[in-house]
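Structure in, sequence out. Go:
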């Protein structure tokens, strides 16, 4: 039994949406989006707990694995796919379990979300193990594919995190870390790509960004672990070196060239360290730039 689902209820607020003027309608829809953001507030302690549990797993080489169907799968893929360009998160440390396979991201696949066996099969195929962090996302919290994947991952010793928009959802009880965001009825009844989807995007953003911060990939609010793969990112990387070190543009560009695009290494070189000391400081600090800078700076 799926129990009562607030995400499927009809909202009296929007019964006459089709009769309102366009601006009035857009304002009302926006109001729903603001509610979605507010609904995350009560879930923040659960998000923080999930981050703190995930970090040691990932430090041991575990993967971040996103599980979902339909909208929830697409939101998970967006979050996971952006970790490499933003934080140089290794591509082999992120994976996806998508109901209906990757083709389902562009074209809806009939009944894929109802396949519990499909969820189990994907976790088996990924050879999920105890260092992995598996995040299941479902607005209803009742998607058979996602619940089955989470249960299988948990049985294999992985850390499991469930994100759902209905309380008492089976996905939440199946997960070690339950993140409930009660977004309630949608403006268009059951259209969970709206409020529920917005809340999922934010929850995954908060989770993955704070995980990366805890892993030392952010320094003074800068994405120092980024790999510059185009001209815009090279300029951004050089400006980071300028900002952190206080050197001029040319010195930053030289350091970036010597460091072969590694922002953290470039910062240490531009701060006066030689290559051997810079590399040693980063290794000793486990890649944390704040600690590495303290290593190479002589104490006054």
């Amino acid at each position: 039994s799926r129990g009562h689902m607030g995400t499927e209820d009809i909202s009296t607020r929007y019964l006459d949406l089709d009769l309102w003027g366009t601006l009035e309608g857009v304002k009302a829809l926006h109001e729903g989006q603001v509610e979605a953001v507010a609904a995350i507030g009560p879930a923040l302690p659960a998000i923080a707990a999930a981050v703190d549990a995930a970090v040691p797993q990932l430090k041991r080489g575990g993967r971040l694995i996103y599980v979902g169907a339909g909208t929830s799968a697409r939101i998970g893929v967006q979050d996971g796919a952006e970790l490499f360009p933003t934080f140089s998160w290794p591509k082999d440390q992120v994976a996806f379990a998508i109901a209906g396979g990757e083709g389902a991201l562009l074209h809806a696949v009939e009944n894929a979300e109802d396949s519990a066996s499909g969820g189990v099969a994907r976790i088996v195929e990924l050879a999920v193990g105890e260092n992995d962090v598996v995040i299941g996302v479902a607005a209803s919290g009742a998607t058979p594919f996602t619940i089955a994947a989470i249960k299988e991952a948990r049985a294999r010793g992985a850390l499991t995190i469930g994100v759902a928009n209905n309380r008492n959802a089976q996905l939440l009880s199946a997960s070690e870390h339950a993140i409930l965001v009660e977004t309630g009825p949608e403006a268009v009844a059951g259209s969970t790509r709206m409020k529920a989807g917005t809340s999922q995007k934010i929850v995954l953003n908060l989770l993955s960004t704070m995980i990366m911060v805890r892993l030392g990939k952010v320094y003074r609010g800068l994405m120092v672990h980024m790999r510059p793969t185009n001209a815009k990112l090279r300029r951004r990387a050089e400006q980071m070196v300028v900002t952190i070190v206080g050197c001029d543009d040319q010195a930053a560009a030289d350091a970036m060239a010597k460091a072969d695009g590694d922002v953290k290494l470039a910062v240490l070189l531009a701060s006066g360290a030689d290559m051997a000391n810079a590399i040693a400081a980063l290794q000793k600090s486990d890649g944390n730039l704040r600690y590495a800078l303290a290593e190479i700076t002589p104490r006054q």
